[in-house]
Design goal:
single chain; 17-stranded parallel beta sheet; 7% helix; Pectate Lyase C-like; 43% strand; mainly beta
C-alpha cells in the first residue's frame, strides 16, 4: 500500500520500519482508556491574579499560583490562569504542587515559564499521590536555553508519580525542558489528549511505570540534546515496575533526534500496548527492545518523507514528492524494529 514513488517508498519503509520481521503471538488486548473526559463543573473558581499573580514575565508568580491551587484543591474547584507570562520556580519545595479533585485551566495565551536554574532536577507542575486532576490548555516553557548548569537531564514540564490516578492533561504544550515535556512513574489511568511536546532536551514523554495510559491526537516533535531523544520513551527502571494497558493513537512524531517511539523492556515488563494510526516524519518510527510481545499491536501507522522530483532542465520547476509508507493493518504480520540485548559479561582476570 504505497501512495507514490513505488520503489523508493518500499525501500524507505523497509529501512525505517524494519530491521527484523517479527512473528510473535498476539498479545492480550489493552484495556487502556479510550477518551479524555471533560472536567466536572466547578463550584469554586479562583483566578490566579486575585491571589496576586502578575503575569508580566518579570515577577515571580509561584506563590500566588500555589495559593490559588490550595484554595480549590480537594473540593472540585478550578484555577484560572489568564493570558500572560508567569515566571515560576520549578525547583525544590518551591515548585508548584497540584491537589486532588481540581482543575488547572490555562488560557490559550497563558505561559508558565521556568525561572533559570542550575539544578539537575525540576518539575514545573507536580502531580504526586493525587487523584482526579485536570490540566487544560496553555503552555509550560522550560529553561533549557538559559539553564545555568551542564549536568543532569531531569528537568520536567509535568511530573506525574507516586500512585497518582485519574489524571487528564488536555490541550497543553510543554516545551524547552532540560529533560522531558511529560514524565510518568507509578501512576494509573493517565490521559494525554491533544498535547504537544516540543524541543525538549531528553524526551517528549517518558513513561517509567503506568497501568492505563492514553495518548491521543498529540504531537511530539523536535526532541534533541541528550539520549535517547525520543518522542515517547517507554522504559521501566527496575524489575518491580511495569508498563501495561497503553494506547497511543492518532498522534504525530516529527523530527525527533531519536526514534518516534522507543520501547525498552530490558529491566522490566512492557505489555498490552496498542499503537495505531500514528504518523512519523523526520525520525525512525519505532524501536522495540526486549518487548517482542507488543509487535502485533503496532499497526496501521504511516511514515512520510519528501523526495526531490526529477528536474526537466534548468528552466523547469518541480515540487518535491511526498512519499507515504503505510504499515500493515492490525492483525497482520507487521514490520517493526525489534532488538534483543544481553547484559555484558564481566571480565575476570
Amino acid at each position: 500500500m504505497i501512495a507514490s514513488g513505488k520503489t523508493e517508498a518500499i525501500g524507505a519503509f523497509l529501512c525505517l520500519f524494519a530491521l527484523l520481521l517479527l512473528s510473535s503471538p498476539a498479545q492480550a488486548q489493552s484495556s487502556a482508556p479510550k477518551a479524555c473526559a471533560p472536567p466536572p463543573n466547578s463550584t469554586v473558581v479562583v483566578n490566579v491574579k486575585d491571589k496576586g499573580a502578575k503575569g508580566d514575565g518579570r515577577a515571580d508568580d509561584t506563590a500566588a499560583i500555589q495559593a490559588a491551587i490550595d484554595a480549590v484543591g480537594g473540593i472540585g474547584g478550578t484555577v484560572i490562569v489568564p493570558g500572560g507570562t508567569y515566571l515560576v520556580d520549578a525547583t525544590g519545595d518551591q515548585r508548584l504542587k497540584l491537589k486532588s479533585h481540581m482543575t488547572l485551566k490555562l488560557a490559550d495565551g497563558a505561559t508558565m515559564k521556568a525561572i533559570p536554574t542550575d539544578k539537575k532536577r525540576y518539575a514545573m507542575l507536580t502531580i504526586s499521590d493525587l487523584s482526579h486532576v485536570w490540566v487544560l490548555g496553555g503552555t509550560l516553557e522550560g529553561e533549557r536555553d538559559q539553564h545555568r548548569g551542564k549536568a543532569g537531564e531531569w528537568g520536567m514540564g509535568i511530573r506525574i508519580d507516586d500512585d497518582a490516578k485519574h489524571i487528564t492533561i488536555s490541550g497543553l504544550t510543554a516545551k524547552k525542558m532540560w529533560g522531558d515535556g511529560f514524565y510518568i512513574q507509578g501512576a494509573e489511568d493517565v490521559r494525554l489528549c491533544s498535547v504537544t511536546a516540543d524541543a525538549n532536551r531528553r524526551q517528549g514523554l517518558s513513561v517509567i511505570e503506568v497501568d492505563g495510559l492514553l495518548v491521543l491526537n498529540s504531537v511530539f516533535k523536535n526532541t534533541h540534546g541528550t539520549r535517547p531523544s525520543a518522542g515517547i520513551d517507554f522504559e521501566p527502571d527496575d524489575e518491580s515496575q511495569e508498563i501495561v494497558n497503553v494506547r497511543v493513537e492518532k498522534s504525530k512524531f516529527l523530527d525527533n533526534q531519536g526514534s518516534g517511539i522507543l520501547v525498552a523492556g530490558k529491566r522490566a515488563r512492557v505489555s498490552k500496548v496498542e499503537m495505531t494510526r500514528n504518523m512519523f516524519r523526520g525520525n525512525r518510527p519505532f524501536v522495540v527492545e526486549n518487548a517482542p510481545g507488543i509487535a502485533s499491536a503496532i499497526c496501521g501507522n504511516r511514515q512520510t518523507s519528501m523526495q526531490d522530483a526529477p528536474t526537466a532542465g534548468f528552466n523547469a520547476y518541480a515540487e518535491p514528492i511526498e512519499i507515504v509508507a503505510l504499515q500493515n493493518d492490525c492483525g497482520e504480520t507487521s514490520f517493526v524494529i525489534n532488538r534483543g540485548t544481553k547484559k555484558k559479561k564481566r571480565r575476570t582476570n
